[in-house]
Amino acid sequence: MKEKLVTLEEALAPIASGSTLALGGSLLRRQPNAAIRSLIRRGVKDLTVQSWAATTATDMLAAAGAISRFEGIYTGMFSYGLAPNFRRAVEGGAIAVRDFSETAMVARFRAATQGLAFLPIKTLLGSDIARHNPEQIRPFSCPFTGEPLQAVAAAKADFTIIHGYVGDKYGNVQWPIVRDSDDIDQMIASAATRLIVTVEKIVPHEEIKRRPTLTYIPGNWVEAIVELPYGAHPAACDGHYDEDDAHLTGYLERSRTPEGAQAYLDEYARSVPDHDAYVAKVGGLAALEALDVPNREQTHA
Amino acid sequence: MSPTTNEIVTAAIAREIRDGDLAFVGVGTNGRAFTLAVGIPLTAVRLAQMLHAPSASVYWGNLLEPDLSSMPADLKQDSFTRWQAAACPSDTGVKCDMLARRAFDVCFDSAAQIDRFGNLNITAIGDYRDPKVRLVGCLAQPEHFAFVPRPIVVVDLDRRVFVEAVDFITSVGHLRGGRSREEAGLSPGGPQLVVTDKAIFDFEPGSRQMRLRSLHPGVRAEEVFDLMSFRPALPEQLPATPLPSTQELDLIRRVIDPNRVLLRI
Asked: Which fold has domain A8-99+156-299?
């Protein structure tokens, strides 16, 4: 097995402006926020972002003016309302959106996983989602029954970034026993061309290989793995820590104006050299440990 | 204490749930939107379970058959993570597949706009390519109307919400009325009920336009029309929405939602 443990900056170095980037996470769970702050720090722009239920990572990228196109099922802030920076960028014409429903986005990632150009769905017949996107959603007839179907184009990304729970230095990433599985991270990972994974903790390979059924991202798929405790902050990592309500509230408060959002990014992304400095900026590990969930250690095998 | 509007609506929805139904409930947002999308549906299905539909169940988030006798006490992530359920499949693709093969009986939806033919918009207000307001996108709401036989829309009556034609069709309801939904290739179905804070609507067979079904106690028809941008069809007789029974009220208040988490706002 090849060792793939690197620094965040090394892992993200190949990602250039103009790339298509698939992001893992769903709602306020496991958004790859530390990686996104690093891309913002480096000034990467003109990204096409593909996502499941997007929140903080996509909204911060939108605030940084780094997204030119978004393809996904949702962008908002879950229980905190709409995503202010994403909304402003779409309404201002900076981001072109192509909406996909859940079965459509699942079909797109599965198609990429299987090396196919498309998979069929029949969800969006009559919907304006299809009417506005003839480039990626096309009608055809079932060759067996003749019924109307829609081909949805494979979600092929140049790079995929996922924030996971724990992994080893070879890139094997494991689920905890109890988790919130309302996401498609494994599917997004399986569709990846170049997969970068950040995890809460690097554990010995001996721990991983004892229960290989918990490995949802095999190291075989992974280009680089990075250890980033609290790497989803201010979002949650289920089984590890909850969302940071005070930080999210502050983020939304400052994001009411473009200037406020820029000041936020200056403070938490652009002026900090790396994730360790970010952790120090938000009060250090002691402050973040206050977000830890009870029985955190028992969630892993 | 007389029943609140939320309690009237919850009891009315509970009576629509049949034994054995599998109901899709969304994860919702906050405030009133949470009550509409999550609070009322979960309370209604639990009430139905306790009264006439013991084997009715819910798919919530990615929890299949979560224990509705012990709902999360707050909305923090860990409370969702630890909510006990019969199954927590490995990813949400499982739920998408179940939607597409019509494994659900009922679903609950809310929306920023709904029109005369029950089409929903949760994507954008104004021109899609140059929107006045960008909303959240679409989630699985297109799937609900495409594949679930009995969708129930839960939304407050408001002129900006009840519009002649939605700005963007996220979910295809009865499309342009008549047989236009079937002609677009969709299965029979579409929204069955629209439950609001003032009245309940269904859809007229044939024309498929929204039709007033009942008025909540004390609400006048004119009041309802004033809160809509189009005139709904009218039935031959316009009854009042039945009040919850003493037993229903007691279960909602003392057993299902004693801390008023679900029906707070």
From this structure: Glutaconate Coenzyme A-transferase (3.40.1080)
Question: In this complex, is the C-beta atom of A183 within 8 Å of any C-beta atom belonging to chain B?
Answer: yes
pLDDT-based confidence at residue B86 (cuts at 50, 70, 90) = very high
- Has the ipTM of the complex gone over 0.90? yes
Per-residue pLDDT, averaged over A141-160, amounts to 98
**Domain extent at residue B98:** 5-256
Residue B262: inside a domain, yes or no?
no
- CB proximity under 8 Å: A 147-166 to B: 147-148
Of B61, B147, B185, the CB nearest to A180: B61
Neighbour-count burial of A111, counting CB atoms closer than 10 A to its CB (0-12 exposed, 13-18 middle, 19+ buried): buried
Contacts of B170 (CB under 8 A, 6+ apart): A99, A127, A128, A129, B111, B120, B121, B122, B123, B138, B141, B142
Residue A87 at interface with chain B, using a CB cutoff of 8 Å: yes
Model confidence pLDDT, tens digit, residues B173-193: 999 999 999 999 999 889 999
Whether A298 shows a pLDDT value over 70: the answer reads no
Please tell me the pTM assigned to this model: 0.97
How near does any CA of chain B get to the CA of A179, in Å?
A: 6
Look at B134 and A90 and tell me if their CB atoms are within 8 Å: yes
Radius of gyration in angstroms for the set of CA atoms belonging to chain B, rounded to a whole number: 18
Overall average pLDDT of the A54-76 stretch: 98
